[in-house]
Design goal:
Pfam families: MFS_1. The chain contains 19 helices and no strands. The chain is mainly alpha-helical and 418 residues long.
């Protein structure tokens, strides 16, 4: 191991940075409807603002991915720290569409920079158990959503405090992860340490398997994150607090990712992806029909379906096409967030249209919102149906193929077994 590097401390601080990233999603899911009411913004405008976080994420990954090996992971994380600080401050002082757009964009860039640096960091540290440890790392995305969602619920729904104060709380964990990262030494990425050339990385990133995985990432990310960002609007009239549904879904996802090791061992990444698509489709269709507390049962199925999508997509690329390096991981993450940025305004427009149709047919306001949310969920459920077909082919082709190993010696042993 290179002298001065503390792999496990790097891993745990990466998890803290991802918690901050996730909390921004949960808090925005709670307050986006408040912005609409306070500043007279339409569903489409709110979708554009929320989507900006994903555009910013994509920009950070597109530009950060090729730079990881050139300027290092530490400098990319410095960009993340600055973006989080500025984004939160701009958002707090916003009172109209464009300032909210800018603040959300800055936070999105910061979130993308966290993943741009931390995904290749985790695969470098744990090069012999990438999918498992990426799931362990990414458990803190739903975990952070649980933390952010609960804090948002009690501060806004129970204590009736301002959304500005809620946003301001993000500064505390941001300062902590920034101070720790600035004091630490970072390793070279696995691709550089293994001697794979930059040209070899670029060539791997235009291969047919990688392009196929990028296309699938567009659909998996929209299924998971698009639904999560619109959860308040889509399920706001089912008889239970929508923010608690978001917390519940993310809690199940965090537990699933924590115990990903045995699932990876039994199914392997292609099998995990196929099973996830089947369960996610069932969960979305059930969510579109459920009401009252049965919604939690439907949400449980949906959460089990989507919990392995993101980290296992990254894990598959890192294990079966490791020559793509940090660039490959960032293209995957950027594609995922880009798809959600595109999907969110569509979801907002679908919701507005279904609601308008219901009102025109004489439905009451509450009934119209319930119907609009259900129809929108049914539209989104088409995505995992497409994935079932795609992942069936992937599973049949790769169920028996071994992963490709670039580096035989990981920087750190695995964390204690869950």
């Amino acid at each position: 191991m290179e002298q001065g590097i503390q792999p496990k401390k790097l891993f745990f601080t990466s998890c803290l940075a991802l918690i901050v990233t996730a909390m921004t999603f949960a808090i925005r899911a709670e307050i986006v409807t408040i912005w609409g009411a306070d500043y007279q913004l339409t569903g489409k405008e709110l979708g554009l603002i929320a989507g900006t976080a994903f555009w910013g994420f994509t920009l950070a990954q597109i530009f950060g991915g090729p730079l990881i090996d050139l300027i290092g992971m530490k400098r990319i994380l410095t960009i993340a720290f600055i973006g989080h600080i500025l984004g939160v401050i701009v958002t707090i002082f916003s009172a109209s569409f464009w300032p909210l757009f800018l603040g959300t964009l800055l936070i999105g860039i910061a979130n993308g920079a966290v993943e741009a640096a931390c995904n290749p960091l985790v695969t470098t540290i744990y090069s012999n158990s990438k999918t498992k440890m990426l799931n362990r790392f990414h458990m803190w995305f739903p975990g952070g959503n649980v933390i952010g969602g609960l804090v948002a619920y009690f501060m806004v729904e129970e204590l009736h405090l301002s959304w500005q104060l809620l946003m301001g709380l993000l500064l505390v964990p941001t300062l902590i992860y920034g101070i720790i990262f600035f004091s630490m030494k970072f390793p070279q990425t696995e691709r550089v340490a293994s001697g794979v050339s930059y040209k070899g990385m670029l060539k791997a990133c235009v291969g047919p398997l990688f392009i196929f995985m990028v296309i699938c990432m567009l659909l998996t990310a929209s299924t998971e994150l698009g639904t999560g960002q619109w959860i308040n609007a889509l399920l706001g009239q089912v008889g239970v607090p929508a923010i608690l549904l978001l917390v519940f879904i993310n809690g199940i996802m965090a537990i699933g990712r924590l115990f990903a090791g045995p699932v990876v061992h039994r199914l392997n990444p292609p099998g995990m992806l196929l099973l996830s698509a089947i369960i996610a489709a069932l969960g979305l269709f059930w969510l579109s029909k459920a009401d009252g507390y049965t919604t939690f049962a439907a949400a449980f199925v949906f959460a089990v379906g989507v919990c392995y999508f993101w980290p296992t997509m990254l894990g598959f690329v890192s294990e079966y096409i490791p020559q793509t390096g940090a660039l490959g991981l960032n293209i995957m993450g950027g594609a995922g967030m880009l798809s959600v940025a595109i999907a969110l305004p569509f979801m907002g427009a679908w919701y507005d249209q279904h609601k308008a149709d219901a009102l025109q047919q004489g439905a009451a306001q509450v009934a119209a919102e319930l119907q609009a949310g259900r129809h929108t969920l049914q539209n989104v459920a088409v995505l995992p149906l497409i994935l079932i077909v795609a992942f069936t082919f992937l599973f049949l082709a790769y169920r028996r193929k071994p992963r490709v190993v670039l580096s035989k010696e990981p920087l750190a042993t695995e964390l204690p077994q869950a």
